[in-house]
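chain below, 233 aa
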Amino acid sequence: MDNLRKIANIYYHALPEEDKLKVSHFMTTMDKDGSGKADLVEFKQYLKEQGYDNYADSDFFKKLDINRDKRLDTMEMLTLYYSILSGRPFCRRCGDFIMAEYFVCVECFEKCSAPIYLCSRCYKDRKYRHSHGINETPLFLDNYAMLEYNRVSALTKKKRRKLQKSESKASFTITTFSTSSSLVSSSKASSNITSELKEVGAVAFKTFETALGLANLKLRLTALGIGAGCTIM
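prediction:
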């Protein structure tokens, strides 16, 4: 939890004043008796009122309460605020709050409002069953690998859009200049088309190369045993 406190503190000091006011509002609203701290009752009541039921957990409160005085001080409430806004998850299998690395089902992450997150212990010990189909083994990635996966996927989509745009432009150029009676214009168009097609070819190859890299990544991870099969249990 110390690491989360440090991160929360760093983010807080980088916030503009108007956002710091939002943090203060979060704390004062939770602290219903105005004592400057939030006890377990205030903690649970506020989080349930705000729709954060999964965070309204006694064990999570104890983890936040670093000094063990059974109340959350300003720094501890700031850590809670950061944990909620950053979407820090709970393990779907054991229910523990995940303070560090976690594993997430890629398909759930991309398509579901409530992705399947697992702590390192439950993932390592295979204390779960999860699938999206009879013959499908879901791909699980840790949070760092998931970030890289999303980065590469975004770049691939961007290159694909550029490829489509280049193909459309090249097609339009061919149609326009094929109807022209000017030999000079046709020659110039041919030069433009050649240049465009070279660019299209380069982008197409790079897109294929990136996609192949992602496919190889998935194959390597599957070979290492990443994923398992049929609803979290």
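The longest strand covers residues 102-105. Residues 47 and 56 are 6 Å apart (CA to CA).
thats it, cya
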